[in-house]
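Two proteins follow. First one:
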Amino acid sequence: MSIRTFIRTVAAKVCVASVCLLTLASCDGWLYQDEGDCSVHYRLKFRYDKNLKWADAFANEVSSVHLYAFNRSGVLVWQMDERVDPSTAANYSMELDLPAGDYKLLAWCGLRNDGERNESFSVPEAIVGETRMEQLQCALNRKRDDLGAYSEDRLYRLFHGTLDVSLPADDDGGSYEYVMPLTKNTNHIRIILQHLSGEDVNKDDFILRIDDENGLMAHDNELMTDENINYRPWDVQNVEAGIGPYDNRAITNVKALAADFTVGRMLETHREKMILTITTKEGRLVARIPVTDYALLGKEYYEKEYNYPMDKREFLDRLDECVMTFFLDENHRWVSAVIQILSWHVVLNDFELE
């Protein structure tokens, strides 16, 4: 063998060996089989701490997630829905099966629940490559009778969230985690009627309703133009309540009326106020109360308590439960009220009603 042939043979073998080493060292090479591949994983977690306890309650409150991903043009490119297992909800996250790129994520949470009764809210069917983000409105599933649209159910909790993400390309593989904050769109309101005189209040003597046009939410969670929704209590019962001065042990227990409602999102800028109407069964008006205005009476307290200033919208988004107790005189006329939000309450006397 000539020296020139020998050099060529050695050079060829070196090149082959180099290619083999590069192959073995790559993410898919057998040297890395025990270490796993080098694919990229993107995961999305959810956080619901937009409440008056400033604590993440996702694990305790969210039952399902419907997630949609849109490209820069606003067209749907991927979607996924999952039930949230309560036993693992504290560590729940959803894998984003998407290539690297920029996306707008939209979530409606609480659309799919235990299946024991009809779902409370729905969104249109989404088609990849066709559906646009603004088409994914969320509507209250309402009923109808001679008085129009109404809801008398204990609504499932509904949440909304959006997030812009940039998913990076990574030739070496890796895991990336993102967090989407959620806003709760349902509220529990308990109305209590009680006589100052100590007389029992019979639940069959009064009719209570809450009216608002808040049954349709846009993709950005703004309220859209909608028909009036007549919310009716999903539970009305007589409860025991105490009457008498706090410094007097001789407090009399009497029957009061307690009515529980679940209503949709409350917004201070909504063109139609959420109104509670209480009438006797004969039709005489007892009270007509702007619910949102009353609820906002608690804002200043929480701002001072937590040293956290917030606008009206944020407070209403954080509020999800409110108890309103109305005291009546012997003629079933409203004379005073107590508004309770968590541990805070305010007493209203001779307050001007609408």
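Second one, unrelated to the first:
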Amino acid sequence: MQLTLTETKGESLILSIFVAGISFLDFNQKINLIKNLDSPHFLALQSIEEIFKFAQCDVKPRAVWNGSEGLRMAKAAAYQCERLGIKVILHDDIRYPESLRQIADPPFLLFVRGNEKLLTGQCVSVVGTRRLSTAGRTAARAFAYEAANNGCNVISGLAAGADSYAHLGALDAYYDWCEKNSCEGTEYPLGHTIAVLPSAIDNIVPYTNKKLAAQILQSGGCIISEYAPGMPTNKWQFVARNRIVAGMAPATVVIEAPNGSGALITADFALEDGRDVFFHEVAFGEAAEKISQVVKSDLEKKHATGRVSKFKMENCPERFLKEGAPVIKDYKDFCVALAEMPGLHSQVPLQGELFT
């Protein structure tokens, strides 16, 4: 259910935000913990040993716990959600994406700005490197444009590079439709775009994409995060964001990704959760190859000094091709390839099908 401070469940909202913000617990441990709590104030009084006990942690992680500070931040976040109109969607909410609920470690809750109805619609995730070639920019934008025109929501991470161009492609579809139709009073029939933040819901990262974020909301899209308003951004949250991008859709399309790219981490998350992964043909084009050589050389130097792992240095798109990932040239080609994929593991049922 959606909780707001204007209802009698204000304490429940604060408690949910409080539990969600405990970074050293995974999803199942948070579920175990909250079953043993009756108020956020009770949680604030617990020692870290008691939290481990309630959460049923077999292996106790190294962690720092400050209950009073956690309660203060949860109260402040709940107030900001109410003030800014940020929706809080718990893991058991009917509006929570079923596809995301099925991943190994789903977010305990989602903070949402914009149209939350998009979260349970048809969608595809589009990712790629920040060091995108000109051909890659065109490909990302064109793929997203075609997807949106086909009624499919485009999910990406609002990062520079491929993510930005994927969002822009879906926005292009919206603006083109508005030029031909009256946006006011007419239901928009095409797909939108969904941005997944690695940061707090009230903090656009990177800052240079603040205007793009505003356009996403103005076009009827939405922005989501698992991090409460006011929460600081840490490096590990960027990788954690990738699992949500992959988990939101039945398939992930990689535009370009040189060795060690974060987009390949997203692809790995997708495969681990039983989703399909596709590579756009521009990922193997001449322009992408030139960028890959520069990146690979830099990674080799860093590996020699122990700054990056051997796996990151050697992780490349070709590894996925050897494992069977198809190469597609556009959205139409993607739809054909998706339909031809063996098995039905990628066909995550829509929310409505699960509750009828």
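SUMMARY FIELD: The longest helix spans residues 162-180. The first strand starts at residue 87 and ends at 90.
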